[in-house]
Amino acid sequence: MEKLWTGRFHGQLDAAADDFNSSIRFDARMAAQDISGSLAHAAMLAAKGILSKEDAAAIAEALGDIRQELASGELAINPASEDIHSFVEAELTRRIGDAGKRLHTARSRNDQVALDLRLTLREECGILDAGIYGLLNVLCKKAAAHAETIMPGYTHMQRAQPITFGQHLMAYAMMLLRDHERLVQCAERMNVSPLGSCALAGTTYDTDREMAASALGMAGLSQNSLDGVSDRDFCLELASVLSILMMHLSRFSEEIILWCSWEFGFVSLSDAYSTGSSIMPQKKNPDIAELIRGKTGRVYGHLMGLLTTLKGLPLAYNKDMQEDKEAIFDAVDTAKACLAMMAPMVDTMQARPENMRKAAAGGFINATDCADYLVTKGMPFRSAYKVTGELVAKCIESGKTLESLTLEEYKAASELFAEDIFEAVSLEACVARRRSRGGTAPEQVRAQIAWVKERMAAW
Questions:
Q1: What would the pLDDT profile of 281-329 be if each residue is shown by its tens digit?
Q2: Dihedral sign, CA of 24, 25, 30, 35?
Q3: Taking the complete model, does pTM exceed 0.85, yes or no?
Q4: Which residues make beta-bridge pairs with 285?
Q5: Which parts of 71-221 are beta strand (E)?
Q6: Does residue 9 carry a pLDDT above 90?
Q7: Which of 55, 69, 151, 153 shows the shortest CA–CA distance to 100?
Q8: How much of the chain is in helix, strand and coil states, percent to nearest 5?
Q9: 346, 257 in Cβ contact below 8 A?
């Protein structure tokens, strides 16, 4: 297939080098965006009198046909093409002759690919955001059902204080809200048109960059032509946003993996999102959660790969930048797949409140409330802390809990203890008293759900 850059060269590119140089395998996914950019460019050229109305009409009709045939599968992309831009231009020229050759006036593949990539990733941001929205919906629904389900909260992986399962789930909802905000801001900064920057220095033609950008729904223009063709900050930013998103999904997956183990027994995963062992018939493995956790490293790797690729590049365009697409496309596809798996996995996950309550009762996680009780009776907190610590030590020795101690045992530690200590150390009361904004009291969990839903309604 004839290259777009023939003329200067007399010899043929080595076949292996040609394959090594080709990007059609991964940039073919930008075909629709490449055609959209070409349609906007052709309309602008015609409006400025650079292209005849007849040629512009022929180009628009043929490009529309190519787009439709690609979508239906009637037209297949030629794998021998160097890139998607070459394929579309060659197919266009094959259909309408010289008019197709005029399309590339006042344009370079450098600004063309920069535009295509921005348009493609802009669409992907919308799909990713829909995935975040879906998972948030599931978390809010699940949290509402378990706003009063008591479980142990942990620090240092040690039982610390009683919380509700709903409160725990809403912590991940807050993370996802931030992921949404970052994704929206990334898409806004991405929505800038480099078209018209040409190879690097702009063009001698009297073009209207604003017209083309507006036709593509882009909010602005790149203000420097060298930056326009060499900027890949939007790829880095999206890879960073996705890395943070994947970190959140990975942390959640790690907890789900722990929770569904026999040691915890807090949840049970649906058979639809679990697998078995080829040798151990009793096993039910959380493979989907483990894969999400594992794929997080893959997305991190793409971020580091992009940063490393770009760190030493002089202005403006360099062929190294062809490496951006495989990395960012795979990061996008991985994050989309993980969101698509996480939402139904969590939705079908069954909580086991009795096991959560049992674990909460056995970890002395109401010790802080016991100390606070003494403080309300007039004892300095540091003294109350010591008395409660001694009580916990005695409970451990005798196999008791703070809830099962007798009043006489309490009074032996301090005369300030009275009958109302049992209400104070009740796990339900411990949770209900934590009514501070954002706390774990059921009313506060419901307030958090309402707060998140309010923000989701504004998407």
A1: 567 899 999 999 999 999 999 999 999 999 999 999 999 999 999 999 9
A2: positive
A3: yes
A4: 275
A5: 150-155, 158-164, 192-193, 220-221
A6: no
A7: 55
A8: 65, 5, 30
A9: no
Phi, psi (deg, nearest 5) at residue 96: -125, 5
Please confirm, yes or no, whether 156 is among the known catalytic residues: yes
Listed residue (61, 125, 85) closest to 5, CA to CA: 85
- All domains in the chain, ordered by first residue: 15-105 (1.10.275.10), 110-356 (1.20.200.10), 359-457 (1.10.40.30)
Phi and psi at residue 163, in whole multiples of 5°?
A: -135, 180
Q: How far is CA 196 from the centre of its chain?
A: 32
pLDDT at res. 208: 98
Question: 């389900």: which residue's tokens?
Answer: 149
243 in catalytic set: no
Q: Given the residues 261, 270, 277, 383, select the one marked as catalytic.
A: 277
Residue type, 424: A
pLDDT digits (tens, 9 = 90+) for 329-368: 999 999 999 999 999 999 999 999 999 999 998 878 899 9
299 near 335, Cβ under 8 Å? yes
Rounded to whole angstroms, the Cα distance separating 423 from 368 reads 14
Residue of 23, 147, 156 lying closest to 84 (CA atoms): 23
Residue of 10, 156, 278, 436 marked catalytic: 156
Alpha helices in 260-322, H assignment, sequence order? 287-310
Helix (H, G, I), strand (E, B) or coil at 351: strand
- Residue linked to tokens 């725990």: 168
Structure tokens at 158: 């040690």
Residues 122, 36 contacting (CB under 8 angstroms): no
